Amino acid sequence: MIDRRGFLTIAAATVAAGGLAACAKDNPAKNTGSKGGGKQITLGFSQVGSESGWRAANTQSVKEAAAAAGINLKFSDAQQKQENQISAIRSYIAQKVDVISFSPVVVTGWDTVLKEAKAAGIPVILTDRSVDTSDPSLYVTLVGSDFEVEGERAAHLLEKVLAGHTGPVKIAQLEGTTGAAPAIERAKGFAKVMHASHPDWKIVASQSGDFTRAGGKQVMAAFLQAHSDINVLFAHNDDMAIGAIQSIQAAGKTPGTDIKIVSIDGVHDGFVAMSKGQINAIAECNPLLGPQLMDAVKTVHAGKGSTLPRWIKTKESDYTADQAAAALPNRKY
Ligand code: AHR
Fold this sequence. Notes:
By secondary structure, the chain is α/β, with parallel strands linked by helices.
């Protein structure tokens, strides 16, 4: 049964949907791109948060690239909360921006707001992270990394790190934010290589540290209490690995020696830890997505979104501790 409040909510939603539909009729642009023109492009961008060094570099890249491309950027930080991202997107729709871009904190739960953007004729470009949707018309393209491949690369780096090792391999996994694409896919890629080639590897503990240093430190301390024989840490990002290093040291162990560490990202502080031998290897995840994103925004705004690939992938490299000191001065983030 629908009560009065429920009825009013539905009525309001219907009026709003009608308004958006009318708006879409007036604006022939669909979600493959809006019409070009001489005026400055306005991009509404909803960032995940500021949880890591990677994110700080990504935010800087987006802001600098927008300025360089002459794009008017409206930026908001969702503080790792999906409801904040949904509000930001709705506000960009209300402001009638030309293009919306966001890095979705989690993969599910976006269809409703993406349909609202589509109904308003505002194209959406995903950046960094993907979404789960059964309707491919709800976004034009994704600019970002292949996280599953990053997980596979981390496992292959661990093979190198463990060369010559005999005995059990007891792995602790620090997962990224629960439900986020990089957490799901990095775990999947790593497990794929492990199950295919390493029956001797075992993940004895796995939990989210939310991609933060504090989370990595806290969860690693709990792992060590429950499993004193962990000899490998796979961290889904450098910041969690750096937090975990503190807990490993507090437990009287030497990070990088007693517990081998492989992580993902390749941020400056990760490279510093790697050059000290505390992290053994890093699979790079490039945060400098701004220039590719602005190119995609311009293409979409010119009405040529259908010419873009569905996924604009980022180029990345792998690093081991012996390469860290030489690579550090040239790192860009
Ligand atoms: O989505 C990319 C991931 O998000 C980075 O690897 C991590 O550091 C960040 O929080």
